[in-house]
What we know:
The chain is α/β, with parallel strands linked by helices. Helix content is 35%, strand content 19%. The chain has helices at residues 11-14, 27-35, 91-101, 120-133, 150-165, 200-211, 216-219, 244-256, 273-276, 281-298, and strands spanning 45-49, 55-59, 71-77, 104-109, 138-148, 172-176, 233-240, 261-270.
Amino acid sequence: MxxxxxxxxxxxxxxxxxxxxxxxxxxxxxxxxxxxxxxVPDRGVETVRLPSGASVRVHRPPTAPTAQHPxxxxxxxxxxxYLFGTARQDDALCARFARTLGIxxxxxxxRLAPEHxxxxxxxxxxxxxxxxxxxxxxxxxxxAIGGAxxxxxxxxxxxxxxxxxxxxxxxxxxxxxxxxxxxxxxPDADSxxxxxxWSGASNTYGxxxxxxxxxxxxxxxxxxxxxxxxxxxxxxxxxxxxFHDEDLAYARRLTEAGVACETVxxxxxxxxxxxxxxxxxxxxxxxxxxxxxxxxxxx
Length: 299
């Protein structure tokens, strides 16, 4: 695992970002900080409680779909190492997807590890997908599953589960720097020099909290032996992301299994760079690439 010089647009913000922010001591603090998002008034977002106790935040397009003219839709799954985070943190992103593509986006507030290890988060995401597909204003033949970081890992796991159960055929799995493989090694100091916001130590802690004593071959998306028949995929990741190698390895395996998979690799970008630098051109290009993939798949 090697890193490249940090992208010119990201260098300034990179100096302010931690390299190893998540551990047993900091997770309660991060959770407390994300709870402050609940103080922001909802604007044009509907919250629906699901039977599992999880919920979805529903973002609708400017031109409201109807039962006579249903729209495509996407389940979106937030990141946070399986340990923290909330659907609210992606309100702006989900609203932008809805506005740009004319789709309904349901962002899942799934239960978090270690209190709720595998399979609870995947169960919540499946419940959200079922709820979305049942909406009369949603075209259930044009559904996507998307997520970032741990949310990307859950999106991949959900795609595998619905394939096995035969209940849905998603049009696309949109995997944004996804957390896919618990076997990714902790890099040495030189290799990790360009990493930000997620480290090898954080990764080990996140996976162990999520997996507990479950069968890892069943729970970890990259451990699945047979990837044939899965939905088409889009995978985007930066060269300075801890997940770079595991994401490209998964993309290769999808392609070898006959699954259409587009990859976008951003030179010099670290984990969650688009969150850290939302106004950068490299971030806008990254979002545009996601929209292009969704537009093609949901057409």
